[in-house]
């Protein structure tokens, strides 16, 4: 499978715990994006990387959120001290610098904070 | 505040009917994508339009980009139950290539 891969698909955690999600983009794609989607809404941009550099972060990305892409390949998104309001689908997408803006999405990680 | 407004938000129709979904903005986008999303899955790209006035057809789906590149429409002819899903429009600008999504149109096609 050469698409965008996300792990885990589902995560249930207790409030206050830390969680980490992983995204493996399409192999030749140098841009990687994280989005968050709450029920009944469209995805909202969180942050993106070009290779290993994090180039932009949304105001939605509070201090409890951190994302990395250490070798310019896979990326991780960590949420510290989770809150119930963090419950959402976390989507990863990738594309190629210089290509049109279309992005290809993974299947997402559904986070439920109880 | 959504920069892209989709309408209608919900649509329930019978198999065989035609429908149109609208995506409107006051901002200009360099390109616009349409995605379809099933419950519990990520969005799947249907089409990208980049030129003002552009029309693209994908079987029974017709996509149009407005002349001013601020709006788009998706028309489905003879809808089928397999068309059921959440349809999302997303606009892209050159800087960053990040996408701005509309709120989505949830379509249900009843057999």
Describe this structure in words.
The complex is a heterodimer of chains A (114) and B (111). Chain A is 0% helix and 49% strand. The termini of chain A are far apart. The mean pLDDT of chain A is 93. In chain A, strands 2, 4, 5, 6, 9, 10 and 11 form a 7-stranded mixed beta sheet that branches. Chain A has no helices and 11 strands. Chain A is mainly beta. Helix content of chain B is 0%, strand content 53%. Chain B has strands at 5-7, 10-14, 19-24, 31-37, 44-49, 55-58, 61-65, 71-76, 85-92, 99-101, 105-110. At the A-B interface, strand 4, strand 5, strand 9 and strand 10 of A face strand 4, strand 5, strand 9 and strand 10 of B.
Helix content bin of chain A = under 10%
- Rg from alpha-carbon coordinates of chain A: 13 Å
User: What pattern of helices and strands is seen along the backbone of chain B?
Assistant: EEEEEEEEEEE
Arithmetic mean pLDDT of chain B: 93
Oligomer: heterodimer
* Unreliably modeled segments of chain B: none
Portion of residues in helices of chain B? under 10%
Mean of pLDDT of chain A = 93
> Which descriptor suits the 3D outline of chain A?
globular
Q: How many beta-strand runs of chain A?
A: 11
| SS class of chain B | mainly beta
The DSSP helix count of chain B reads 0
Order of helices and strands of chain A: EEEEEEEEEEE
The largest sheet of chain A is: 7 strands, mixed
Structure summary, number of beta strands of chain B: 11
Structural class, from secondary structure content of chain A? mainly beta
Measured distance between first and last alpha carbons of chain A = 33 Å
Shape of chain B: globular
Question: What percent of residues of chain B are in strands?
Answer: over 45%
**Biggest interface found:** A-B, 28 and 29 residues
């Amino acid at each position: 499978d050469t698409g965008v891969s996300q792990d885990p698909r589902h995560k249930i955690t207790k409030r206050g715990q830390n969680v980490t999600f992983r995204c493996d983009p399409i192999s030749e794609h140098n841009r990687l994006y994280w989005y968050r989607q709450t029920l009944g809404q469209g995805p909202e941009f969180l942050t993106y990387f070009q290779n290993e550099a994090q180039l932009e972060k949304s105001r939605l990305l509070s201090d409890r959120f951190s994302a990395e892409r250490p070798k310019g390949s896979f990326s991780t998104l960590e949420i510290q001290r989770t809150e119930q309001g963090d419950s959402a689908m976390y989507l990863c997408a990738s594309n190629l610098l210089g290509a049109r803006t279309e992005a290809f999405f993974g299947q997402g990680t559904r986070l439920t904070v109880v | 505040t959504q920069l892209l407004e989709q309408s209608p938000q919900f649509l329930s129709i019978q198999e065989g009917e035609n429908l149109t979904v609208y995506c409107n903005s006051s901002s200009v986008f360099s390109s616009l994508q349409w995605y379809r999303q099933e419950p519990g899955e990520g969005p799947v790209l249907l089409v990208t339009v980049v030129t003002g006035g552009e029309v693209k057809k994908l079987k029974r789906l017709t996509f149009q980009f407005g002349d001013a590149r601020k709006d788009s429409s998706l028309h489905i002819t003879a809808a089928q139950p397999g068309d059921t899903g959440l349809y999302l429009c997303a606009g892209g600008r050159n800087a960053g290539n990040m996408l701005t999504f509309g709120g989505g149109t949830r379509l249900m096609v009843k057999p």
